Fold this protein.
Amino acid sequence: MDAYQELIATLALVMGVGWASGINLYAVVAVLGFAGGSGHLELPAELQVLESPLVIGAACFMYVVEFFADKTPGVDTGWDTLHTFIRIPAGALLAAGAVGDVTPALQIGAGLLGGSLAAGSHFTKASSRVLINTSPEPFSNWGASVGEDLLVFSGLWVMLNQPWLFVGLMIAFVVLVIWLLPKIWRLLRAVLRRVGRWLGLVKDVPDSLLLDHHPAGDLSQHKDPLSGAN
């Protein structure tokens, strides 16, 4: 039974570091470093480098930088764009290290799982921020950023203290992302199209002509060019 609980705890750690890295990588590194260095968490040998005061200090410094950048409309989108190339690979590396001294196949599998969760949480955050930035007031941006920080810290707490519950929440998160991301991307395309029209970069045509399929009632208005004129 102890081995089974250890397996669940390891799975929760793999999923947790991947998911949280996609939202706030520096908070993850700082929390794991503090927890490992203080003895509250026994990190695998591959992650014990996070306990270094230098690593913890750098993570805390970058967390402060991100704290303000993430709450500035426009700057947060640029920050998220840059961190597309940082959060996802880092989430994969942390997840691969979280499984400890295992076979290369298991490490690669853990890295793929962590990287996928990091990508899902990162793109959900980044795309939703673009939509939020269309609002003229800054309070929604601040609220979203503070909510994300609280989500990361509370999620890491659940990961460390209730691994069973955390694994279940991560499964629900995957289902939610699969359902939500296509809807966010459709809204994002609509926003970008409107911005393009406003800047004169996109031809101003009726929205009905931009749909993938014509309504059934309009098919009679589009003749087949091969049928000839009657």
